[in-house]
Amino acid sequence: MTQSLRSGEAKARKDYECDLCHLKILSGTKHYTHAVADDGTCVTWRYHLICESKTHDWDEDDFAPCLTGADFRHEYGITQEIIDGGQWTPQIDNPTLLKAEV
Fold first, then answer.
1. Which long-range contacts (CB under 8 A, 24 or more apart) does 82-91 make?
2. Is 69 a residue whose pLDDT tops 90?
3. pLDDT of residue 16
4. Quick one: three-class SS letters along the chain?
5. What are the pLDDT digits (tens) for 41-68?
6. 35 near 7, Cβ under 8 Å?
7. Which domains does the chain have, with CATH numbers?
8. Strand 24-25, strand 3-11: pairing
9. Which one, of 100, 78, 74, 101, lies nearest residue 90 by Cα?
C-alpha cells in the first residue's frame, strides 16, 4: 500500500527534472515535491509549481498513465520560456474561473 510521506513546496538545492513536463527545475527554484513509500521503497516526485497546478483535479488513477513530458507540455501549453518566468495564459474552457472574486 502506498503511503504519502510528505508533500508541499520546497526550494531546489540542485537541478532536477520535472516529473510531469520533463523540463529542468533549476537550483534555487521553488517547486512542488511529493514523497511516498510503497513496499519499502521511497520515491520523491518533483514538479514545477505551474505543472503541479494542472493536477489539482486529477485523481490517483490519472497519475498512473501520466502523459509523456512532450504530451503534457503540448496538452497544457507549457514551454521552457514559461518555466523560466515568461507570461503564461492558462488553457481553460471557462474564462470566468480566471476572474478574481470580490
1. 82/50, 83/18, 83/21, 83/23, 83/24, 83/48, 83/50, 88/50
2. no
3. 93
4. CCEEEEEEEEECCCCEECCCCCCEECCCCEEEEEEEEECCEEEEEEEEHHHHHCCCCCCHHHHCCCCCHHHHHHHHCCCHHHHCCCCCCCCCCCHHHHCCCC
5. 888 889 999 888 888 877 766 665 566 7
6. yes
7. 3-85 (3.30.1740)
8. unpaired
9. 78
Asked whether 41 and 53 are in contact (CB, 8 A), the reply is no
- Give, in order, the Cα–Cα distances in Å from 33 to each of 46, 60, 69, 87: 5, 16, 17, 23
**pLDDT confidence band for 86 (50 / 70 / 90):** low
Q: Which of 73, 80, 89, 67 is nearest to 26 (CA)?
A: 80
How is residue 79 written as a grid cell?
Answer: 514551454
Find all residues with CB under 8 Å of 50, minimum gap 6, and list them: 78, 82, 83, 88
Beta bridge partners of 46: 33
